[in-house]
Structures are given as structure tokens and as C-alpha cells.
Amino acid sequence: MKAREVNFDGLVGLTHHYAGLSFGNEASTKHRFQVSNPKLAAKQGLQKMKALADAGFPQAVIPPQERPNVEVLRQLGFSGSDEQVVEKAGTQVPHLLSAASSASSMWVANAATVAPSADTLDGKVHLTVANLNNKFHRATEAVTTERVLRAIFSDAERFSVHEALPQVAMFGDEGAANHNRLGGNYGDPATQLFIYGRDESGHHAPVRYPARQTLAASQAVARLNQVNPGQVVFAQQNPQVIDQGVFHNDVIAVSNRQVLFCHEQAFAQQDKLLANLAERVPGFTPIQVPTHAVSVQDAVETYLFNSQLLSREDGSMMLVLPQESHNHQGVWRYLSELVKADNPISELKVFDLRESMANGGGPACLRLRVVLTQAEMQAVNPAVMMNDALFNTLNNWVDRYYRDQLTQADLVDPQLLREGREALDALTTILQLGSVYPFQR
């Protein structure tokens, strides 16, 4: 059955700021306490969505979450009116208000793991919400993420949205950032490759930085998503690259259809994994970038692999890259040679996503990939699909509500809380989502 991949991009939230909350994410740590520009961040994301939609790639929007998260601050012992809760947290423990105000839900590659209907035992599209329990500022996202996904994929005959796994370390789940799908046409059954950083045995674990995705979580997600067991492969991320800042697999590898574009140090026992995939995936085309051409450090700094690999109708592929990859002489030299070589990648498309990149997320972090048949696409909430009208509406919405600079000290401003709620109330009407936020319920 003919199917297409739809990229659902996260819209950057109104409290986008640089607080260095993500230990193990070197870009996040490096830019701590710098002044952010939430308005520019949102517009950069919208520009990418619109450009790809105009180029013929189906594109949709996932809204930001309510921040600051007053509910979690109350759980931590701050009391009074909502404004007083925010003021007390910001005055007494600023880093807690910062965590409760994080706009990290914009990186929707961590929102869920998706199984297309071609791969599932019941023929439905399955989405399992990620629990993100390795980081406090992200572990609070799951409840709203589930509500948003249910509002977008509301047809129970075609879609099944599962709640997040238990919030314990054993089931640490970071979503699609550690998941790949390899095969032929999108509508055909494919091999699902789940990448984990650690298992409970503790063998070959990173030393410096945490391994966020567990084998137990990946196995549970595969079960929940009803992926045909014969189509599943589990593989371990190289713990040595995690210690160099590769906090998710999508910082060191990206796949699309038959192509796996990765660094030669991406996986533990990489040769064995590639041989297994070659047996399973017809026409399997691994593109391994050698260390002498691009070091792991250069890959982390430029987010070369946190790119989007997109298929054109003729089977050729376009690599969507951040400006940082273009600016790095060695990385750009490698890419310029890559598109001349004998492989499906024939075009490079560069976007300026500086605001997202400085907080530790590139083009691939900003999108959740969902393969849909034509009938399934028609069952998706149409109000979230990117087109000229939605692009203009969302840009006007950003102009009305977003600030053009924000620091951690600004988060205590009660007006920011009110602005955010007014904005999200308007956004749920634009995207026809219903009451998905705590303040609306």
C-alpha cells in the first residue's frame, strides 16, 4: 500500500531559554545563561517546516507545552496563587523554576516512538509516548504529550496512542531519537532498529555521561507498538561516543528507507550489526563516515548526523542540515564529496536553526517521523498540517505573543505566565486540539 512519511515538527515554546539543563548534551551546557530569542527560535522552526512543505514533503506541527509547569512546582512544595508559586520558586530555587520552564518539548523526536501500520500485528499506527525520565525538566512532558497526540491522532480505528512507560530508571525511554526504520517503500513492512545505551547488566556502559535509553524500555516499546517480532533488531550505542556527547543515537546516525547514514563509531559491534541489517533489508545501503574525515567531536559540534534524510518521488534523497555543518570546513568538504558519490543522497539543504542548536537540538530533534497511508493521513487532525494559511497564522501568533529575548532571571515574571497561557489558549483553537493543557482543564 502506498504510504508517505510525514514530519511532525515541534513548535518552540514561549519560555525557550538557555539554562544548561541537559547533562551529557555539550551544546546545552556550553550556552548556559546566554540570552535566548524565543521569537526567532519559533520562526526558524516555522521556516524549516514551510520550506519542506513547499518542496513536497508532508509537514505538520506539534504545539509546545504549558510552561512554567506550575503543577510540578506545587508538587515540590511551593504554594499560593500560580503567580506566587512561580515567584517563590524563582526566588528560592531558581534552577527548579528554570527546569519547570524548559521549552525542551520542541524536540519532538523525543515525544514518542512510532510504528507504521505496515509493521504492526493489528494493522494500526502505534505511538508510545516517551517517559524521558533521565532529566527532570523533560520527565514532566509525558502527560501533555499523550493528550496532544490523542488530539492529533484521534481516530481509534487507525491509531493507537500508548501512555509512557513507568517512570523508573530501568525503563528510561527517549523516544524516536533512538529508533530507526529500514526498508524499501514506506508502505512495505520494514525492519525496526531500536538503539539502547545500557541494559540492566551494566556491561559496557559509558563512564562520563549517562546512557539514557535502556534495552528494557526499547523491548517494552516494541511490544506496546505491536511490532511484528520478526521485524525488530536491538543494538547498543557505542558507550565511548556517549561519553563524547552523543546523548541520543540521532546525534550519530540517521536512516531513511534502505540507507543508514552513520559514523563508523556509532554502534557497539558495528560490523556485526551492519551484516545483520544487510540480510534483512533489501538493497541495504550503509554510508559510514570515517573518523579521519569527520571526528566524533566534529559530528557533535556540527550535528552532522542530526539531519533529516528525506526521499523524493524519484527515490533520490535530500539531507537537511544545520548551518553549523555548512560552516565547518572539514564537514562540508566531506558532504560535498558525498553528494557526488554513488549513493542515493543527491542534495544538501541547509537551515539556520541557531536558537535550537545552541540549546542542543538540530533539525532531526525537531521532528517526529510518522509513516502514513493516504487513508491514515486523511484521518489525522487536518488543522495541524502545514500550508500557506497555517504558516501565516502561526507567524502572526508568534509575533503577537513571543518575546525577542529571555534570560533565566525573566522566568519569575508573572506576566510571562499569563502571556504563555493566553498564547496556548489561542493556539489550541488554531490547531483544533481541544483542552490539552492543565490550565484549560
Which key terms come to mind for this protein?
single chain; 441 residues; alpha/beta; three-stranded mixed sheet; 34% helix
Taking Cα atoms only, what radius of gyration do you get, to the nearest Å? Answer: 20 Å
State the major sheet: 3 strands, mixed
Q: CA-to-CA gap between the ends?
A: 40 Å
Spatial strand sequence of the major β-sheet: 2-1-15
Number of helices: 17
Q: Uncertain spans, ≥5 residues at pLDDT below 50?
A: none
Rounded average pLDDT: 94
Shape label = globular
Extended strand count: 15
Helix-and-strand structural type = alpha/beta
Q: Beta-strand level of the residues, as a percent range?
A: 15-25%
In percent, how helical is the residue content? 25-40%
GO molecular function: N-succinylarginine dihydrolase activity
Binding site for substrate: 19-28, 110, 137-138, 212, 250, 359
Subunit structure: Homodimer.
InterPro entries: AstB_sf, SuccinylArg_d-Hdrlase_AstB
